[in-house]
Amino acid sequence: MSVRVDPTVVVEFREFGGATVSRCFNCGNCTAVCGLSGQGANFPRRFIRYTQLGLAERMQESLDPWLCYYCGDCSDTCPREAEPGNLMMASRRWLTSRYDWTGLSRLMYLKPGAELAALGAVALLVLLLFVVPADFGFRLLARHPEARAVVNLAAFAPTAIVHVGDTILALLLSGLLVANAARMVAFAMRNAGASPLAYVAELRALVLHGLTQKRWRDCSTGATRHWLRHLLVVTAYGSMFALVVVFLQWFQVENASFHWTSLIGYYATLVLLGATLWIARERLQKQDQIHKHTDLSDWLFLGLLFLTSLSGILLHLVRLLDLAMPTYVLYVVHLMIAVPMLVVEVPFSKWSHLAYRPLALYLTAVQARASARRSALVTTPALQT
Q1: d(Cα 180, Cα 328) in Å, to the nearest integer?
Q2: Domain assignment of residue 34, yes or no
Q3: Confidence at 385, pLDDT banded by 50, 70, 90
Q4: Alpha carbon of 146 to those of 129, 155, 156, 320, 324: distances in Å?
Q5: 141 and 126 belong to one structural domain
Q6: What mean pLDDT, rounded, does the chain reach?
Q7: Residue 384 lies in a domain
Q8: What does each C-alpha distance from 42 to 37, 124, 355 come to in angstroms?
Q9: Which H or E run contains 117?
Q10: Among 44, 72, 99, which residue terminates a domain?
Q11: Cys bridge to 306: 94, 172, 241, 276, which one at CB 3.0-4.6 A?
C-alpha cells in the first residue's frame, strides 16, 4: 500500500504545541518506560516517528495518543529532552482538529484569540435572549414590578422554555460530537477489517472506560490521585448535565425549598469547585510532568468550570435570601458562563477528550479482536496440514 509523505506536517505539528518533535532520535526509551504501552500500542515512539516522516494519514488513523494519560515518565527519562509526554498532548490537539469537520477546533488551537471570541459570542447571544424578547427576561420584569420584589423564575425564565432550550442544546452538542467521533472511527478503522460482531463484542470496553476512566490507574506516577480527581470531575459534570437536561422541572423551582435533586446540585458544585482549585494549584506549582506544559485552552477549561460552580453557588445563596433582582442577574451570568463552555468546549476542545479516550480504547479492543481472528484464519489451515 502506497503512503503519501507530507513534509509540512511536522511544521504544522509544532504549531499545536509539539515544538520539540525534531529532538527525538527514535531511541524507543519512552516506549520502554511507559507502563501503558505495549501489546501493539507502541507510544509515544510510533506517533512521533509518523510525525517526523510526514505520514499524515498514519497519524490520522492512529489511536496511540488517546491511550496515553501523561504520567510523565517518558519525559523524565528522555535522553534528548524531547518531552514525549508533551508531544502526546500536542498529538491529541492535532487529532482533535482532524476529527472536527467544521474546522473550528483547528482555528481555536492555532489562534487562541478565536476560542475567546467564540466563548464571548455565545455569551452575548445568551444575554440577548434575556434582553430582547418582550415577554421574557428583563423586559418582562420592567412591566411587572411585583416580580422584582419576590423571586419568580417562572416569570423571568419559564421552566418549559428553558427546558426546550436545554433539549435543543443537548441535541446540537450530541450531533456535533457524534459527527466528530464518527470521523475518528472512520479514520482509525479504515484498514482494520473488523466484522460487525467484533464491534458488538467489545462494547463493554466502551462503557467501562467511559464510566470509570480506570486505565489511568495503570500509570506508574500519580495514578491514583489523577484518576480519582478526573473521575470526580466527570461524575460532577455529568450530574450537573443531568440536572439541567433531565431534572430541570424539579431542580429549578420557584422557591429555594429542599428537593432530592438539590443533593446532586450540591455534590456537582462542590466537587467542581474543589477539583478546579486543586488542579490549578498543581499547574502553578509545575511539580508533575502533566502540569508543566499548559496552553490557553487548558486554563480556559479550568476557569470555565470554576466560574460555573462559583456562579451557581452565588445564585443559590441569593435565592435562599429571596433577593429577586440579584437572583435574575446571577441566573443570566451563570448561563453566560455555562452555555459557552458547553457549546465551545464540548465538541471542539478539551471536553471532547471525555468521548475520544474511551472510544479509542474501545476501537483498540475491536482492532485486537479483528487481528486475532485474521491470525486464526491463517494458522488453522497450516495446523490441519
Answers
A1: 36
A2: yes
A3: very low
A4: 22, 11, 12, 18, 10
A5: yes
A6: 86
A7: no
A8: 6, 45, 22
A9: helix 112-131
A10: 99
A11: 276
38 φ/ψ angles, rounded to the nearest 5 degrees: 115, 175
pLDDT (tens digit, 9 = 90+) per residue, 38-76? 756 688 999 999 999 999 999 999 999 999 988 888 998
Same domain, yes or no: 304 and 176: yes
Do residue 242 and residue 186 come from a single domain?
yes
Q: What is the pLDDT of residues 359-381, one digit of tens each?
A: 999 999 999 999 888 888 776 55
CATH label of the domain that carries residue 71: 1.10.1060.10
Residue 383 included in any domain: no
In this predicted structure, the answer to whether residue 254 has a pLDDT above a threshold of 60 is: no
pLDDT at position 245 over 80: no
Q: Is residue 334 a contact partner of residue 312, using CB atoms and an 8 Å limit?
A: yes
User: Considering its fold, how many domains does the chain have in total?
Assistant: 2
- The reply to whether 112 and 208 lie within a common domain is yes
CA distance 181 to 102: 13
Is 220 in the same domain as 302? Answer: yes
Distance CA 76, CA 289 (A): 8
Closest CA to 274 of 313, 327, 318: 313
Instruction: Tell me how far apart the alpha carbons of residues 163 and 353 are, in angstroms, rounded to a whole number.
Output: 27
Residue 162 sits in the same domain as residue 34: no
- Other beta carbons within 10 angstroms of residue 372's beta carbon come to 11
> How far apart are the C-alpha atoms of 379 and 200, rounded to whole Å?
25
User: 81: domain range?
Assistant: 9-99
In the beta sheet, which residues pair with residue 38?
41
Contact present, 65 and 361 (Cβ < 8 Å): no
